[in-house]
Each structure stands twice: as C-alpha cells, then as structure tokens.
Design brief:
Layout lengths: L2 H12 L2 H13 L4 H21 L5 H24 L8 E6 L7 H12 L3 E4 L6 H11 L2 E6 L6 H13 L6 E6 L5 H7 L3 E2 L3 H17 L4
Parallel strand pairs: 1-2, 1-3, 3-4, 4-5
Helix pairs in contact: 1-2, 1-3, 2-4, 3-4, 3-5, 4-5, 5-9, 6-7
Length: 220
C-alpha cells in the first residue's frame, strides 16, 4: 500500500479531518486508482474503526466523527470513481440494513463500492422492513438485493426478507446477497441467500458474479 493511502487510513482512524481530506486530494492528484483509494484507504479505515469499536477501544462519538470524515472523503473521490463509467448501469442493486438494526457504516461502504462497479444503487437506509424490500423489487422489475445485519438479534430478518420475496412471487427475479459482522457463509446458505461477503470489496465481486447468473437466467 502506498504511503499516501496509509496516511489517509490513519487520519480517518485518528479522526483528523483536515489530514484525511488532504491525503485524499493528494492520492487523487498522484494518479492512484480511485477504487484503490476507496478500498485500501477509506474502507480499510472504517474496517479498523469497526474492529476498535468491537474491542471497546473507541466509543460512539469517535465512530460517528470518523464516519463523517469517511463520507466527506468519498465525496471527493466520487467524481473520479464515476468518471470512467458507462452511462448505462450494470444493474439495479437494492440495499438496506434490515428491520430492527440501526447500523449502516458497513452498508454505506458496500453501496459506495457497488457504485464504483457501475451498479445503480437504491439504498433504502436502515431499519428497513421486509415489505419495503418487496415494494422496491416490484418497482424495478428485477434486481440484486443486499441485506445487512450487524446484530445477532436481527440476522433472522434477512431470512424474513427472503421469505417475503418468495411469497410475493419475486424470488426468481432477484439474487440476494447477505452480510454483516455476525453473518457467515453457512448462515447465508441456511436462509437461502445466493451469496455472502464479509466486506465491501468482496461484496462487489460477489455482486458481479450474481449479476452474471441473473443475466443467464434472462432476468436482467
């Protein structure tokens, strides 16, 4: 990893807004791939924040402040991320944190990475009931669906969303990707999801694979 990206990563973790923004500008000016800036700098920093939060080494105000810096840096990178993309999106991607769960840092990172890959992301936010996912899929016709759960108590909501899609007769139109700190590949298989990813960069790769499967089935 370049020194600039290390500097960016550390600045976000330390909550140094000025240094993080400058490091982002410097990385862009030096010609570093915008995707690398997001994955190796910004997303890596938020992964560090998540780990420190879980280990109780930092507290909510620090997490919120670092998340705000992350968003500001993303705003700087976004024009470069989207500049070389086709005007025709790869596919619709419906994204949300499931009902009962108010965490969205990981979801937001996934959404950003998906946008860099050309997906048209429809972020429904957090605490999203199953019915809202169903409504959005009906509106779009076909889509990939990403379900985030950061609590063991809300993981079952991922299963409920999949069941709701089945009851609505929409399951064959979508590919469902699940993720979140307590979620595992075995859980994804247990609830009938089509894919699982432990982080934002891998979520993008899994989404591309699922999109290919959706197209092969004639639903995209």
């Amino acid at each position: 990893m370049s020194e600039l990206l290390k500097k960016l990563r550390n600045a976000i973790v330390e909550g140094d807004e000025e240094q993080a923004l400058q490091a982002t500008r410097d990385a862009l000016d030096s010609g570093i791939d915008p995707v690398a800036i997001v994955s190796d700098g910004l997303a890596a920093a938020m992964n560090d924040i998540g780990r420190l939060w879980n280990e109780e080494e930092i507290f909510l105000p620090e997490v919120v402040f670092s998340a705000q810096i992350f968003k500001e840096c993303i705003n700087l990178v976004e024009p470069a991320l989207l500049g070389g993309k086709s005007t025709e999106p790869a596919a619709h991607f419906v994204l949300g944190t499931v009902k009962g769960d108010l965490h969205d840092l990981g979801k937001n990172m996934v959404g950003t990475m998906l946008q860099t890959a050309g997906f048209r992301v429809h972020d429904l936010g957090k605490d999203v009931p199953a019915e809202r996912f169903v409504e959005k899929v009906k509106e779009l016709g076909s889509a990939l669906v990403g379900l985030s759960a950061l609590l063991t108590t809300t993981m079952l909501e991922q299963k409920r969303v999949i069941e709701a899609l089945e009851r609505a007769g929409l399951r064959d139109r979508v590919k469902v990707l699940v993720g979140g700190a307590p979620v595992t590949d075995s859980w994804a298989r247990e609830v009938g999801a089509d894919g699982y990813a432990p982080n934002a960069p891998q979520a993008t790769e899994v989404a591309k694979k699922l999109l290919s499967e959706l197209k092969e089935g004639g639903n995209a």
